[in-house]
Amino acid sequence: MRHMDDLEQLLHRVGQQDRAAFALLYERTSAKLNGIVRRILPEMTLADDVLQDVYVRIWRSAAGYEASRGRPVTWMAAIARNLAIDVRRREASRGLGRQVVYEPDLGGAAPGIDAELALALRRCLEVLEPVQREMIVAAYCEGMSREELADRHTRPVGTVKSWLHRGLAALKACLSDD
Amino acid sequence: MTDPMDMTAAEYVLGTLDADERAAFERILMDDAQAVAEVAAWQRRLALLDAIAPDVTPSPELWARIEAATRPEAANDNRVASGWRGAAVAAALLACVSSGLAVMGWQKPAETRVVTRTVASKMDAVATLTPEGATPAVLVGWHEASGRYEVRPVTMDVDPVHAHQLWLIVEGEGPRSLGLIGNEARWIDGRALRPGQSATIAVSVEPLGGSKTGSPTGPVIYSGKLIRLPERS
Lengths: 178, 233
Description:
The complex is a heterodimer. By secondary structure, chain A is mostly helical. In chain A, helix 1 packs across helix 2 (19-40), helix 5 crosses helix 8 (157-176) and helix 7 packs across helix 8 (157-176). Chain A folds into 2 domains: 1-100, Rna Polymerase Sigma Factor, Chain: A, CATH 1.10.1740.10; 105-178, Arc Repressor Mutant, subunit A (Orthogonal Bundle), CATH 1.10.10. Chain A contains 8 helices and no strands. Chain B folds into 2 domains: 4-51, no CATH class; 68-228, Immunoglobulin-like (Sandwich), CATH 2.60.40. Helix content of chain B is 39%, strand content 22%. Chain B has 8 helices and 8 strands; from the N terminus they run ααααααααββββββββ. Chain B has helices spanning 4-14, 19-29, 33-45, 47-51, 62-70, 74-85, 89-104, 109-122, and strands spanning 125-129, 138-143, 148-153, 163-170, 176-181, 186-189, 199-206, 220-228. Chain B is globular.
């Protein structure tokens, strides 16, 4: 994505309900947000509905976006993940579990974020204990709940929670060393 | 040792809080700048995991659906507008409540009925707060007997970095704060802030915790005139 820096300007215009800017924003970001939604909902036909809701939400809340708090793509990705995870939890509560395991490519291309930060996060994820890293990545990328992680790793939910906390704390400590 | 609030923020970003924990934390986020900053820091720390998501082109018809879902529906607006002019105010209110909820798609129909019944039975005046020409975002009802405002967000989105502050503007006077609102229905004591015969209600975007000056400092995103409902027999 070559024009990531323009996204801030585009979002600002979308906040003023500029439809042309909205179309452009969709063109630039929909493949990425769709990828994020589909990591969480790979086998579900609901993914299109979720992506639609994501852009409706962006249209309505763009006026509240503030550049000082993060990049536009991070803000939009958070909306996409939240809505996709909501649907996933709802489906899980109806007994529709996840079948496809997502294999993240942590070394893959990472457009749209600060290269230095990407490098630091890669390095810090690598120094985590493998099980902690797997859980953090599976929770974030696949939208796994603590219960699902407990099933996958055949451990009690309480153990999962403390592993997650230890992993997150280690990640934070590692990143602030830089 | 790990700070519990920071871990909650981290799990909020990670997506592993359960529904109750998440709702509780979202209430904290509405007016706790520290919590908001922690969430932002975790989003930044984990941003790589968004960036490595593969690009997947959405199906070609999706954009048309999004366009339709975000376009202000002319037919719908007309129905609401004519309703205000006539006597069937409750019906119009039902129309805008249900159109709002249909867009959101997650409210139960049963709740819609409860909303309308409450609204139709006790309210003396009502304002639909909308951005220019769009679907109503917030409904505000004035209940004369109890001196209370009933606030029902319909399609307003929570903005974790700002507060949404509600204002009463009585004709000929400056704006007076009715307090902060979130995306949950609430009642506001308005015994000292009665709307009189002609008033406008507005929502402005303010720093977390609300305007420091006592007047709106940020943009007004929604507003609407408070309209007296006809006496009902």
